[in-house]
Structures are given as C-alpha cells and as structure tokens.
Amino acid sequence: MDLSQKSQENVEYMIEAIKTKLKMATGAAMNASAFHVGQYDDILDIYELVMNKERLSISEVEALAQELGHLRNNSKA
C-alpha cells in the first residue's frame, strides 16, 4: 500500500491497522469511514507512531484513542 498518496482508502487502511495494533475494545465504535482525507497527515502521524512501537503502555493507548476520537469528532464538524 502506497501511503504517500492521500486517499480515503488509505485513511481507512491506517485506521483499521491502528485499531488492530492497539487491540481497541471500542474498535467497533471507531469506524474508519468516520475519518476523511483532510485529516490524512494527522492520521499518518498516528499510524507511523503506532506501527513503529513494539509495545504501547496503557496510557499511550488511551492517549491515542483520545486523539483518534478528537479526529473523528472533528470530521463531523
């Protein structure tokens, strides 16, 4: 997958990968289609952070989930 291209497909791919890596219990509530291409750079930053870490602490997972929630909520505005 070429993540250098800003597309809705890539946004959805990254969100799903982040949810999988974080093993989010609320993953079902974090629907990838709720995010849009305008947030691509922020989502890519989160994706790269999550994918480059072997393990994440509980506080890191909570902070990342909160940031994704902010992005999701801002996509509705």
Short description, anyone?
With 77 residues, the protein is mainly α.
What is the average of the pLDDT values?
A: 86
Number of separate strands? 0
- Please tell me how large the radius of gyration is: 12 Å
**What is the molecular shape?**
globular
The portion of residues assigned to helices is: 55-70%
Span between termini: 29 Å
Q: Helical segment tally?
A: 3
Largest sheet: none
Order of helices and strands: HHH
Strand content: under 5%
Low-confidence runs: none
Helix/sheet category: mainly alpha
Protein name: UPF0435 protein
InterPro entries: UPF0435
Pfam family, one: DUF1128
Organism: Paenibacillus antibioticophila
Please give a handful of descriptors for the protein shown.
77 residues; mainly alpha; 0% strand; globular; UPF0435 protein; UPF0435
Walk me through the structure.
By secondary structure, the chain is an all-alpha fold. The chain contains three helices and no strands. The protein has helices at 8-22, 40-52, 58-76. The radius of gyration is 12 Å and the shape is globular. The model has no long low-confidence stretch (mean pLDDT 86).
Topology:
Blueprint lengths: L7 H15 L17 H13 L5 H19 L1
Helix pairs in contact: 1-2
InterPro entries: UPF0435
Protein name: UPF0435 protein
Organism: Paenibacillus antibioticophila
